[in-house]
Design brief:
43% of the residues lie in helices and 15% in strands. With 162 residues, the protein is of the alpha/beta class.
């Protein structure tokens, strides 16, 4: 009979190039003692901490997304606004949260992808020229709540699984 395998710690992946909540992620990750991967196409400053690691990938479309999707595992959390990346992370068994606090789920990702396609089509006609609403304090608060809930949900799941 083999020894039981050790449960891999929860890790957080930040799709960092345009992420407005990196500092919040660092604080929450520190509170829970979680490893955080900051993935970007260019150098960016990160706190000097043994559980925060910078990953600089080559420039190009979806290179950072590919790295995150390849490394995310069940129970991990990815922070991203990128809906196709969120879909890939969910397929890997990880949680996906947008910086606004929007939680992507297996039930909601299909409609999010469809909405994204519709919006791309509308933008291509020139009907929409503006971007998203400015990031707000309410978005930041929702994000913190969603991240905390995702981590606690995984911690509870792991306690009941043992």
């Amino acid at each position: 009979m083999s020894a039981p395998s050790e449960i891999r710690p929860i890790e957080i992946f930040i799709d960092a190039d345009a992420c407005p909540v990196k500092d919040e992620v660092y604080r929450v990750a520190q509170r829970y003692g979680l490893k955080t991967w900051v993935v970007s196409n260019a150098f960016m400053m990160i706190p000097a901490h043994p559980r925060i690691e910078r990953v600089i990938v080559d420039a190009g479309p979806d290179i950072a997304d590919d790295w995150i999707a390849e490394h995310a595992r069940p129970g991990d959390v990815a922070i991203t606004n990128d809906i196709p990346l969120a879909e890939r992370v969910l397929a890997a068994g990880a949680a996906a949260i947008a910086p606004t606090g929007r939680v992507f789920t297996r039930d909601s990702i299909g409609s999010a992808i469809a909405q994204r396609a519709i919006m791309e089509q509308i933008r291509s006609t020139g009907a929409i020229t503006g971007g998203p609403a400015p990031f707000s304090k309410a978005d930041r608060s929702r994000f913190l709540q969603s991240l905390d809930e995702a981590i606690n949900r995984e911690i509870r799941r792991r306690k009941t699984a043992t």
